[in-house]
Amino acid sequence: MSHYHPLLGLYVSRLREFYRQPARLFWVYGFPTVLALGLGLAFQSRVPESVQADLVRNAASDPVEKVLRDYDAKARAGRKQGVQLRVVPEDEAMKRLRTGKTPLVVVKATSGAITFRYDATRPEATSARAAIDAILQREAGRVDPIRTEDTVVNEPGSRYIDFLIPGLIGQNTMGGGLWGVGFLLVNFRIGKLLKRFTATPMPRRDFLLAILLARLTFLVPDVAVLLSLGVFVFGMPIQGSLWLVALVEVVGALAFAGIGLLIASRAQTTETVSGLMNLVMLPMWIFSGLFFSAERFPEAAQPFIQALPLTQLLNALRAIMLEGAGPTSHVVLVALGVLSAWAVGTFLVALRIFRWQ
Amino acid sequence: MGEWAIRVADLRKQYPGRDGPIDAVNGLDLEVRVGECFGLLGPNGAGKTTTVEILEGLNKPTSGDVEVLGRRWESQATEIRERIGVTLQETRFPEKSTLLELVGLFRGFYREGLEPEDVLGRVSLDGKANSYVEQLSGGQQQRLAVAVALVGDPELLFLDEPTTGLDPQSRRQLWDVILDLRNRGRTTVLTTHYMDEAERLCDRVAIVDQGKVIALGSPADLIARLGGEHVVEFAVGGGEPPPDPSCFAELSTVLGTRAEGDGYALTVGAPHRAIPALLDYLEAAGRPLARLTTRQVSLEDVFVALTGRHLREEEADAARASKPGRRRRR
Ligand SMILES: Nc1ncnc2c1ncn2[C@@H]1O[C@H](COP(=O)(O)OP(=O)(O)OP(=O)(O)O)[C@@H](O)[C@H]1O
Ligand SMILES: [Mg+2]
Questions:
Q1: Residue A200: closest CA among chain B residues belongs to which residue?
Q2: Is B90 close to A16, i.e. CB distance below 8 A?
Q3: Which residue of B has its CA nearest to A2?
Q4: What is the torsional sign of CA A346, A352, A357, B1?
Q5: Which residues of chain A make contact with B88, given a CB cutoff of 8 A?
Q6: Which of A17, A42, B260, B271 has the fewest CB atoms below 10 angstroms from its CB?
Q7: Pairing of strands B230-236, B212-217
Q8: Residue pLDDT, tens place only, B266-304
């Protein structure tokens, strides 16, 4: 028997449509995963990068080469900054310097004097010069009057990937809400399916409710995939409560579903709806602090930026996940307030102007 | 509920258009009896879809009185929806749902109805019950639309151009579905541009043109109104100028004459008397006969007689193209 309750029937059919489209599965789960992996690996904290330099090969270069190579071997063993050295004829070295392939050329004259050639405006050139000079001076017997120690900051929770994962979760929630609700409805309208539904006694409330419920259902895997990637692959710590993350995500998803509904409430073509969708998402991609903190934008723009739903969603997610913010913290309360306002406001307007045909 | 499934009086629908308002429906009256199959026949843009969608509660009339199954859309919309089935001129059902799932989904909207499996059987799609909608041919999709319309076991079924674009075999299959419904005593309203379809399926037909009913009756009635039962079509050679159609009006049993494409069409009472008379006339006038055919009068002739236009553009084109010299150039 297939006598579903209309709401249940609509809900199940939404779920089916989704998981039967492998392309959509890729864009929703595959793409953000690949993005997170790519960016995470690119920005992963590694052994400090070696200093790069070219040494001009001549009668006097051998001892210098030996000193630098020995230093490099020791540094690498101790996971410290090494020296990546190339020994080449003079004209080749100069050519590499000119074309930016090496930041520093070292020339040891037979007289014993050492010349550094470099472009002083390149930071890596000046730091290479300083590093090589120090190595050679110490080797020649210089003793530093003060002992110094280096501690590299590399704690989980403060790395770029830890900042990025909540950003990707939030942006996935935005994309899912807008495309999942907006695009779907416009496609239904174009295919006259909305009209066909309204010719039946189907309660219209159930139709919209089913879309919302399906959206909230998809939220579970959406968030879980990225969150487990962060936790299990990148060792990201989650300081706050997962329940609070879930609550903020649900309210955020409703806000974006409302915006999707509003965008789709009158649009008659996929071109219109795609255009509107990008128009709405673009400012949030730029200003909401997806890839770097929104606070970097000028003070004057902050009221606008902070009113964007994605900004608030990301603020709250980062505060909970990275700083352990609780349900009564200022950030979380403000975010929940702003997101609820978006959800309620967009739904009220959308339902008023929604066109079923 | 009484005798009438649908009563419409002075229905009007005006759309705002670029160059002034468009009267899509312009004072249309209609009464459909319970249990009959009623056809709305008319050319493109006649207002058929607009009328039907107003009856289905999908469109609001500008003015006029509409009663469906003894109820009114303003006050009893849900009750009407429970009792009607609808196919739209075209619907794209979700591609990734199976037929059974889709029909089952719609079944869930109605308090009472038929089993999804049975409904698919009625439109001969039971073999495809577990296929995806995207795997169906055009004809199968139209039958699916009918299945979806039937699943609430409607008292009144609206079919908007159910067979447009189908091959002859698929049309036959859909006709069988519709005839089966009529036998079950259900009321059907269908729109079409196909004469043969209306003649075959409908108890009564309203010919609609420019938003109005211009003729109403059973197909046989409408045909009888032309007087004759036969049409003689012919063309003459022998150079310009072609004779005026009125030349043939005095021939034996000829009831109507008109120019038709490159030749003429005569409505006649008795072809066996009219044709010899025609041949004698042409002989005397010295004009050779280029072609000659006879056929039964059809609703198409009724439409042409009423409006001077053909029901479908392509038929008018076909008639024009039948001149031998022109056909080659096309
Ligand atoms: N939404 C609309 N806005 C403006 N004009 C419309 C609208 N819908 C229909 N019309 C116009 O109303 C007239 C009747 O259209 P309708 O669709 O009812 O014709 P139809 O008889 O169903 O034609 P067809 O055989 O082509 O389906 C046409 O001139 C059409 O252009
Ligand atoms: Mg139409």
A1: B81
A2: no
A3: B104
A4: positive
A5: 192, 195-196, 199
A6: A42
A7: unpaired
A8: 888 888 888 999 999 888 888 888 889 888 877 777 888
How far, in Å, CA of A330 to CA of B312, rounded? 70
The length of chain B is: 330
CA–CA dist B224, A353 (Å, integer) = 52
Q: What is the overall mean pLDDT for chain B?
A: 86
Q: Please tell me if residue A46 touches chain B, with a CB cutoff of 8 Å.
A: no
The least confident of A48-52, A59-63, A211-215 is A48-52
Hey, is the C-beta of A345 within 8 angstroms of any chain B C-beta?
no
Q: Which residues of chain A does B91 touch, with a Cβ-Cβ cutoff of 8 Å? A: 191-193, 195-196
What's the CATH number for A51-139?
3.40.1710.10
CA nearest ligand 1 atom 4, residue: B15
How far does residue B50's CA lie from ligand 1's centre (Å)? 6
In tens, the pLDDT along B183-200 reads 888 999 999 888 788 888
CA of B19, nearest ligand number: 1
CA B246 to each of CA B256, B258, B271: distance values in angstroms, whole numbers, following the listed order: 9, 8, 18
Chain segment A166-175, per-residue pLDDT in tens: 999 999 999 9
Query: Does A323 have pLDDT greater than 80?
Result: yes
Average pLDDT, integer, range B148-152: 95
Contacts of B87 (CB under 8 A, 6+ apart): B142, B145, B146, B148, B149, B158, B159, B160, B162
Taken in order B74, B79, B83, B87, the sign of the CA dihedral is positive
Establish whether the linkage from the previous residue to B241 is cis, with ω within 30° of 0.
Answer: yes
Q: How far apart are the CA of B5 and the nearest CA of chain A, in angstroms?
A: 17
pLDDT at A155 over 70: no
User: A20 CB near a chain B CB, below 8 Å?
Assistant: yes
Q: CA A296 to CA A301: how far, in whole Å? A: 10
Please tell me which residue, B114 or B310, carries the higher pLDDT value.
B114
Is the CB of A15 inside 8 Å of chain B's CB atoms?
A: no
**pTM, 2 dp:** 0.77
Where does CATH 3.40.1710.10 sit in chain A?
51-139
* φ/ψ (deg, to 5) at A204: -65, -30
8 Å CB contact of A9 and B152: no
Query: Which chain A residue lies closest to B100 (C-alpha atoms)?
Result: A2
How long is chain A?
357
CB of B46 sitting under 6 A from ligand 1: yes
Whether pLDDT at A99 is above 80: yes
